[in-house]
Each structure stands twice: as structure tokens, then as C-alpha cells.
Amino acid sequence: MAANNTNGTICVHGDCPSTGRLDDVWVFDVTSQTWTELPAAPPPARGDLRLPLSARSCIACTGTTASESKAARSFGSALHAMADPCRIVVFASGNGSNFQALIDAVKDGRIPNSKIIRLIVNRAKAYATTRADNAGIPWEYFNLISHGFQAKGEQDPVKIQEARNKYDAALAEKLLKGDYKPELVILAGWMYVFGKAFLDPLEAAGIKIINLHPALPGKYDGAGAIERAYQDFKAGRLENNRTGIMVHYVIDQVDRGEPILVREIECREDEDLHQLEERIHKNEHELIVEAAALVVKQILEQRSRQ
């Protein structure tokens, strides 16, 4: 038996986890965490059972006696955990086309049972904020220099590192406060490299962080990855004439975290750099959604086992 939430409904697939039979109907109240037997109700049909999800939503399961429904009650608790959407915070620095892809995928259910609770940008004129406004998603501008962590034009590497550490720590603290706390952070065109002062507190809190990078694992780490791959292609140095994109978990080594999904992209002789970039960006929009969906499912499954 499995369950998921789609557009305000909970869908239960399969038979009763208690008895395997479809006898009497038990209704699980999400708010009170209790089961009630409804023997007069008609048995649910096999397959999907769809019920409205609200403050006192009910999830139907089956059983014959209260003792037999022990497993069903446990299942109901798991469903309750899955009913709450996975909380996502997205970080972006520019146009936000990948952010838009995430918005659309959450809305249409390709990223299951999720909610983008906030966008964070580090550039004041990032168009991603307009996308957030259009989608009704709160956003915040938080910048290393504008918010006083680093002096403009600072050249001292020690002071720069100190400033970055303080900025990272402040941003981590911000994420870990109350309703702001996400279960998943997605870096979608975020042009800043986080250090341990940001990564360690989130890891300790069990928050997953994933990043989209336009290169294959171990290739072209950091900025300018597409341009560098294209230059190597033109010079005959690109292995198998292929570059690619990946979504990976974020660690304190730039673009070296464990890959979640990888897609190879062949370079073409008749393409210029701009055309290759356009083709890669189109694939990015697909891959970031697919990877986010995988991670969200893992989060929901883990939550249901707790």
C-alpha cells in the first residue's frame, strides 16, 4: 500500500494494511490521530480512494475489529506524515527559469506533495523575485555586501573569508527559525559558494541541499562550465564530444557532491555557444524537476517511517 497527496486529496493505493481485506471501513482523523469504525459505510473500491484534504480530513482504510486495525492505525500515522507537504526553499541569483520550472512542477504534481515556502535571492534585481510574486511565494533579498557582512571592494582574503563565514552562519540561522525551516533547499542558479558555516548546521538539522550544475560529475567545476566545455569541444579536447548537466547533493567541495541525476549532452559542430547554452538550459529545467521529485519522495518516505 502506498499514498500520496495530489491537489488537495490523499490517494490510497491497495488493500488494508491490517487484514488485506475490504470489509468494514475505518476512517482516520488527521487532526485527532484517531480511527473510527464505520460499518454502515460502503466498502471502498479497489484502486484509488480520493478524499478531500482539509483541517479535519479523513483517510479511509479497512479492518474488522479495533485489534485488527493496529497496523492500519500505524499506517494512518504514516499517511498523516505524508499529508503535510514537503517544505522547500529555493535559492536563485538571476532570471529564475529553473525556479519557474520548480514552481510549475509543484503546482501540477510532478514534484509530489510539496510546497515552495520561500525564495532567497542575493541580487536585488533578480527576475526570480517577479516569478515568486506571480506565484504568491514569499521571497527575501539577502546579500553578502549590502547586508553589511563584507565591505565593498574588500581585498584582504582573511577578511573576505571571515565575512563569508558570518554571512553563511546568519543565513543558516535564518533558515532554521520556526516556520521558515525547510526540509529541502534547492540551489537553482545560485551564484555563490556556501561553506561549512552554512552547510554543517543544515546537515545537523537533517535538511537536504541539492544543486544544479551544467557539467558532468568531476568536470568543469565552478563558474563558466558550459563555456569551458564548448572551448574544449572546439579544440578537439572534449571527451566523446559530450558535456552534460547534473543535480547533486551539496558538500563543501564545489560541485563534488554525490550526483542524484546526470544527463549527457552531445556538442554539435553546427552550434555556436549560445545555441549550446539554450539546449542545456532546456534540459536543466527537466532535470532539476526530476531530481527534486526523487529527493522529495525520499523525504516523505523517511518522514513516514519516523
Radius of gyration from CA coordinates = 23 Å
Are there runs of 5+ residues with pLDDT below 50, and where?
Answer: 1-25, 29-33, 40-69
- β-strand percent reads 15-25%
Overall structural class, as computed from helix and strand content, comes to alpha/beta
- CATH class category of the largest domain: Alpha Beta
The assembly state of the depicted protein chains is single chain
Name the strands of the widest sheet in spatial order.
9-8-7-10-11-12-13
Tally of alpha and pi helices: 7
Question: Which whole number gives the mean pLDDT?
Answer: 81
The largest pleated sheet is described as:
7 strands, mixed
In CATH, what is the homologous superfamily of the largest domain?
Formyl transferase, N-terminal domain
CATH architecture of the largest domain: 3-Layer(aba) Sandwich
Share of helical residues? 25-40%
List how many beta strands DSSP finds.
13
Instruction: Please write the string of helix (H) and strand (E) elements.
Output: EEEEEEHEHEHEHEHEHEEH
Query: What general outline do the C-alpha atoms trace?
Result: globular
Give a structural overview.
The protein is an alpha/beta fold. It has 2 domains: 2-83, no CATH class; 86-305, Formyl transferase, N-terminal domain (Rossmann fold, 3-Layer(aba) Sandwich), CATH 3.40.50. 34% of the residues lie in helices and 25% in strands. The protein is built from 7 helices and 13 strands. A 7-stranded mixed sheet has the order 9-8-7-10-11-12-13, sandwiched between helices. Mean pLDDT is 81; it is low at 1-25, 29-33 and 40-69.
